[in-house]
Amino acid sequence: MIELWEATVHAPDGAVLVHPVTATLTERRVAVVGANGSGKSTLLRLLNGLLLPTSGSVRVHGRDTATDGPAVRRDVGFVFTDPEAQILMPTPREDVALSLRGRVRRKADDDAALAVLERFGLAAHADRSAHGLSAGQKQLLALASVLATGPRVLVCDEPTTLLDLRWRTHVDRLLADLDAQVVTATHDLDAARRADRVLVVDDGHVVHDGDPDAGVDLYVARMTAGKLR
Ligand SMILES: Nc1ncnc2c1ncn2[C@@H]1O[C@H](COP(=O)(O)OP(=O)(O)OP(=O)(O)O)[C@@H](O)[C@H]1O
């Protein structure tokens, strides 16, 4: 469960990037939609304490991101739009194994890492350079490594943007089947309609919070009518 109470984000120059948001997210699948630069990523970064609200609070499973950041981040996995930001090791196998084992290296984890990579179509690349992967493969690796940590909540910032149709479908299914709560910022409106709850962000304001179809319809109407703030 994620609880935002009057959570607000100001830029250093005082501009309001996220206007006060109060919401209790209990649904398993929550989608966040909005135009480029509307504040989706900023809102998502609040959810694991990557960014702290400048006023108000954010709690995950009862823990405040401001006072209990490390514990929150153990529970909340975050998949960035740019996979380069989270590939830490030279090869895919090592990257996933690091997530599985923490700091102690064990052969069993290297084998388990290969099984994880298999699920993401990356087994053949397990021992090649992670930075030599294609953009879509890097996105799959970033997702595989985060899922290997077994998060209770997964926050994804446009996780399928770089993927071809086959892998987008695969990742959509995989996310749908996870036990973890998943909060996703997405420009894929069909995926947003399949969520349990949709938040629409417009110029830092949450202008809809609730029914997915109504939210996506509102977003499309605002975009096509040019009624962005
Ligand atoms: N540290 C910061 N200082 C000033 N402005 C910022 C800062 N971080 C983000 N912004 C601005 O806040 C706004 C929202 O950015 P954000 O990345 O949250 O948008 P987004 O909805 O995720 O966009 P996209 O769909 O393009 O990824 C943008 O105008 C961005 O330039």
UniProtKB/TrEMBL annotation:
<dbReference type="InterPro" id="IPR027417">
    <property type="entry name" value="P-loop_NTPase"/>
</dbReference>
<feature type="domain" description="ABC transporter">
    <location>
        <begin position="2"/>
        <end position="228"/>
    </location>
</feature>
<keyword id="KW-0067">ATP-binding</keyword>
<dbReference type="InterPro" id="IPR015856">
    <property type="entry name" value="ABC_transpr_CbiO/EcfA_su"/>
</dbReference>
<dbReference type="InterPro" id="IPR050095">
    <property type="entry name" value="ECF_ABC_transporter_ATP-bd"/>
</dbReference>
<dbReference type="GO" id="GO:0043190">
    <property type="term" value="C:ATP-binding cassette (ABC) transporter complex"/>
</dbReference>
<dbReference type="InterPro" id="IPR003593">
    <property type="entry name" value="AAA+_ATPase"/>
</dbReference>
<dbReference type="Pfam" id="PF00005">
    <property type="entry name" value="ABC_tran"/>
</dbReference>
<protein>
    <submittedName>
        <fullName>Biotin transport system ATP-binding protein</fullName>
    </submittedName>
</protein>
<dbReference type="GO" id="GO:0016887">
    <property type="term" value="F:ATP hydrolysis activity"/>
</dbReference>
<keyword id="KW-0547">Nucleotide-binding</keyword>
<keyword id="KW-0813">Transport</keyword>
<dbReference type="InterPro" id="IPR003439">
    <property type="entry name" value="ABC_transporter-like_ATP-bd"/>
</dbReference>
<dbReference type="GO" id="GO:0042626">
    <property type="term" value="F:ATPase-coupled transmembrane transporter activity"/>
</dbReference>
<dbReference type="InterPro" id="IPR017871">
    <property type="entry name" value="ABC_transporter-like_CS"/>
</dbReference>
<dbReference type="GO" id="GO:0005524">
    <property type="term" value="F:ATP binding"/>
</dbReference>
<comment type="similarity">
    <text>Belongs to the ABC transporter superfamily.</text>
</comment>
